[in-house]
## 1
Amino acid sequence: MTIPLHIEVVQKKQSRANKEYIKEIVHSYLSNFSTLTPGATITSNDLEENLELRENVHSITFCDVEHDSEVVTTECELIFHVYVLDAFGAETDTMTDNTSGEELPVADVWALPAEEFHGLWESLVYDSKLKEETLRFVETAFEFSDRGVDPNVIGWNRVVLLHGPPGTGKTSLCRALAQKLAVRLGDRFPRARLLEINAHGLFSKWFSESGKLVAKLFERIREIVDDRRLLACVLVDEVESLAHARRAALAGLEPSDSIRAVNAILTQLDRLKRHPNALVLTTSNVTGAIDVAFVDRADIKRLVGPPSERAAYEILRGCCGELMARGVVAPREQLFALRVLEAARFVETEGSRASLRLWAAARAAAAAHSSGRALRRLPFLARALHTRGEPTLSVFIEALHSALRQQVRDAQDLRDDPPNSVS
Ligand SMILES: Nc1ncnc2c1ncn2[C@@H]1O[C@H](COP(=O)(O)OP(=O)(O)O)[C@@H](O)[C@H]1O
Ligand SMILES: [Mg+2]
């Protein structure tokens, strides 16, 4: 049986070679390897002796979801995705509120694959198959659209809802997913855009005009979506702000125009679903409070929780790796992957001591329900507040423990003494 292995090749901006040619030279380069490591990346610096590749290729990444160990090259079906990263960043779409004359940012538009989101997918760690399953869901939805499967017979659509506590990577995962699709579906869709709708901004103010703004915004979105060779990912972040506005209007706390504006968004999102090249991504920090109407619209609903101890370990290991690569922590030492520690039954040896201390920190972080965001901040706090000079890895890991204890204490203080409480 052959194993499909996706090979993502970032072409250099200045390279004028066509994609087929790039595929060929990468393919022949890879035939030098008897095995490939999923998740590994080769950058142009590693390609010293191969001038042709160096000139044209920025990096080569092997992606595989089924295997976490090396795969034999001849047993793989190599699927190449060659792309150039867009370096222009987001373009902010603004509209003017006629009543106040103020400029209101209504959406950010990114051309994908974007430089900013390169590596984002890989940086997100969940120990369930959350990323892979979400990607499979969406790929399947596009496959069904392609084949013209009747949505009245089989229920499916292209609306994703990620919900869960703040800081667990929902917004990042939506962006990373859009980027991943732009790369993976590059043959079908030579162009791709991510449109981030600023729902919060649209509904925090100007209710009398928001209905009109929503209509105008979707007119612009439709212009983009009308290009059938373009993949359009529309992200409505923190969708609960729509539900809040709606509830407030229903309770008579807001002008009734606002409910029309919110309903307009929901209707427009429904219409968007009919376009075979559109994907609607939504996130919510609160599950219970979202409008039922909205939840029903999403076929792909995933709960995103704080990292487990395993995921926390991999996040912290990645952070330590980065600081050692940059020379902030020195000298460079090895931290074992979790499966290596497990294979050795967590037995302490000279070589595994640092990894085991890091594992203890990861377990403490998971027990404290630290979010992914909090974990990524920890190394910074450890460096700033708990180390001096150039720390070794083991000194730095102890500092991580101290930073974590402080973070937990601070969170406790906040809960005990909310900022708006009167003492
Ligand atoms: N599971 C995770 N793995 C790696 N990084 C994470 C994870 N969860 C959160 N982060 C990091 O935390 C930060 C905040 O994530 P964000 O996507 O804004 O969360 P949310 O939208 O859920 O509030 C990002 O920098 C992200 O990389
Ligand atoms: Mg978010």
## 2
Amino acid sequence: MPLNSTSLTSPPAPVLMEHCCRQPWETYMEPIKMAPGVWYISGNDWVACYLIDTGDGLILIDTAMHETCYLMIENIRKLGYELTDIKKILLSHAHGDHIGAARTMKELTGAKLYLGERDHFFLTERRDLIFCDGYTCGEFEPDEFYADDKPITQGNVTIHTVSTPGHTPGCTSFFFEVTDKDGKTYKCGMHGGLGLLWNSKKAFKEIGLPSSLMYEFVDGLKKLDKFDVDITLPSHTNQVGILLLKDQVTEDFNPYYDPSIWHELMQERLERAEKILKKFEEEEDC
Ligand SMILES: [Zn+2]
């Protein structure tokens, strides 16, 4: 039962962010093996970062906060890697809980940094939209923007990106396959940002983002629901109960292998988003 309802009952994001940034040691989470060569590595128990061993260097998905970065670095070394083994860093979207340590990790690894192009103006013109809430988020420039028709390959792993605007305009989702020692292949998938932050036309207008993001978000969920995913990688631990299952992981057993979870998650979020969309469409234009 990896799906749970913690996303509906857990404290709001700013509270969790504050806890991670002010008392990072209380949120420490050791590496969790999610799939062959894939680890939950962020070092905290709220924001996911994934480390992928490609056989020829590592890919890091998201960096979490600057304040928790030392815990992630500890985890990377605990697994026997060096920071310079990281060759590519893929950012899901330009919010502080995912990119707070991007500058730091780029400096320490020399990796190539990727971001969705439509989030670039967060870095240059609208840093208020990064929602760093006063915490550290070093300035950086991505080396490359995603193009969905140009998969990103490192070693024997190829990551297909899918633009999924909504949570942010440049929010990007990731899909890739990994193979175990017996040659069995697993499809891994991560939605880049599963929540809608604004749910009325007025709110979109006030924040200065197009309300069309609402429709793009719903379309993205419908599109991604058609994908087959064996192992769902949540971008936050409150989307899928991965922490509840971590003690079941062994060399030969992976509790995260469950092709139904992805669809359950997409359907759950779609149901919520469509309710919001219905109200949104009944609103007066503003
Ligand atoms: Zn976010």
## 3
Amino acid sequence: MVDKACRNCHLITEGNVCPRCKSTDLSDDFSGIVIILDPENSQIAKMMNVDRRGRYALRVR
Ligand SMILES: [Zn+2]
């Protein structure tokens, strides 16, 4: 399985559909991974507008 990042919300997934926003616009060309474990209390999560746990790409091309 190849990890891919959603171009829409930056969530990293192993599937072909983003489980967060249901977008199929995924890219395997991304850089920087942020792991959000506690979106309620994470400044990074707020900065990235993230509301669920998961791995997110900082940059998706
Ligand atoms: Zn998405």
